[in-house]
Amino acid sequence: MADRMLESNQQRKSHETTKRPSALLCSTLSKRTVLAPLGLPRNIHLIFIVYPQSSRWSSKASSFLYLLARGSFSRSQRMDLCISSTTPRCVPFPSVVGLPLSLPSCSSVRVKEMSLSTRHKLSFGIWYPLEPLESPSTTRRFAASVAVGTESDRLPADIQVTEAEEPNCRVRLSVEVPPAVCQDCYRRVIKEFMKQAKVPGFRPGKNVPESILLSYVGKQNVQKATVESILKRTLPHAMSSVSGRALKDSVRIMTKYSDMEQAYSSNSSLRYDVVVDVAPEVKWVPEDGYKNLKIVVEIDREIDAQKACDEELKRRYKSLGALKIVADRGLQIGDVAVLDISATTIDQDESKVQRIPSAESKGYQFDTEDGDKVLPGFLDSIIGIQPGETKAFPLAFPESWRQENLRGVNALFTVDCKELFYRQLPELDDSLADKLLPGCSSLKEVEESLLAKCREVEDTAREQATDNAILHQLRKMVEIDIPLSLFEEQGRQLYGAQLLQMQASMNLNEQQLASLSSPETVREYLEDQKENIISVIKQNMAVGDIFKRENLQFSTDELVKEVENSIQEFKRHKQEYDEDRIREQVQEVMEGAKVLEWLREHAQIQYVTR
């Protein structure tokens, strides 16, 4: 009842709300950044209600769920959520799958339905974010169905709004609604009920005496509908004081709904408190420090083009040889040995000796020409070992060892030599060119082709490492008071992207997906990845701030081209998409690439080989 008056405004955009930084601004922004998963919903949480007539989930339903989770549907295909307290009823949820959700304390939830197939009917709705970390009993989520901004609906009297700053970029608005506004909302509700209620003895749409209408509909239901109408009409006006700063979907009405009903019933007026997260300020330490960055970029020696080319040519050449069994001597450089390796810590107290599983291996095929890639001293300790022989020797893990828990550890290694081989290689000349690299006719051509490819890899890796070093430095130079809603949204986006990757690579079933999407699992992720989430937010906001400060731009043609390329990808995979969402994400990534390009030009960069 009173459906038209209470229709949700969730689909409508508001230009007065501040756009949040995208989770797709990855740790390495550049023109090569992969725009995936494009269309991932931001600040939209979906609930999927599946009514299967068979016990198994069809592949069509599964793929449809995947598309919904990506947020790839156009706005016209996304269904509204309607909250109404006028007609309490129970909504069954036979099978709920999707991103984490918590049901609000409303009397009824109505979702529109879409026919999925002859065997499945899928109902779904756009839901607002999960309850905040504070107790859900202290808040009532209403903001998702309210468009933040000044409504064209003029009020018969001005409301009074008192603004107070709170920690974590939060603003509390105390709203006092005068009786004139409450009375106007009451009249509208009565008028709407008259249009829709089918009161016995009166034709639909005809005027019904108010007393009879109240008796038929119920005074309490009318009061509830009036309070909702007051909230819907006054909240946009109250939010006008923070327009341009308010973060989308961060509005929460803190006053209990029951308290508002009681206050309206007693005084014919209303007072409620609203909290909203506002865009945090980016503070640079030092101010404008990003303009004089001094970056040290560590480059792995393995990506050196010439060295990588020599290693690749050597690997290809060795693959052409045949392994022959060694029968009359011990291990020497150039041989390949099959080893069983075990390792324990060294301690005078034998009860404290522990195995080192990460240093153990069975049937390990050890190429002696790769001796520089293992623990220093290991190769020298087994030179001369023969098949069937066992050697034990102590070694110390260097302080630069890749596993931190083993750095400086003294270990006792035991090595059993199972088999020993030497390589019988053909003569290296131009006759092997086509085998080393198909299409080449000489060794020189092979070397030139391999070197060109290795240089491309080196340039890409160098540029990627530079971007990472710059972004790491930016994160340390900004101080940001991050709102809780922004943290939770960013974390859910990262987790959603991770979940989609898992679904694509592991083909998760319905039960696994539901388990991984549970509120408890998401909350654990937010807690475990807190530092990483904060780093991503700082990085994104720092990049966005630089883009604005330096007035950086890119051409519209570039944007259109990238959007078209992304849309073609969706079409190629026969997936539906939201073009506006794609455009927004492409624009954010292009802004990031532009900022990194500007920073590389203005920074002092030193490259160090490690």
From TrEMBL:
Pfam families: Trigger_C (PF05698), Trigger_N (PF05697). Transmembrane segments: none annotated. Residues 442-599 form the Trigger factor C-terminal domain. One of its GO terms (molecular function) is peptidyl-prolyl cis-trans isomerase activity. InterPro entries: PPIase_dom_sf, Trig_fac, Trigger_fac_C, Trigger_fac_C_sf, Trigger_fac_ribosome-bd_bac, Trigger_fac_ribosome-bd_sf, Trigger_fact/SurA_dom_sf. The keyword Ribosomal protein does not apply. Its EC number is 5.2.1.8. The keyword Heme does not apply. It catalyses: [protein]-peptidylproline (omega=180) = [protein]-peptidylproline (omega=0). Residues 1-20 are annotated as: Disordered. Keywords: Chaperone, Isomerase, Rotamase. GO terms for biological process: 'de novo' cotranslational protein folding; protein transport; protein unfolding. It comes from the Eukaryota. PANTHER family: TRIGGER FACTOR CHAPERONE AND PEPTIDYL-PROLYL CIS/TRANS ISOMERASE, TRIGGER FACTOR-LIKE PROTEIN TIG, CHLOROPLASTIC. Belongs to the FKBP-type PPIase family. Tig subfamily. This is peptidylprolyl isomerase. It comes from Trapa incisa.
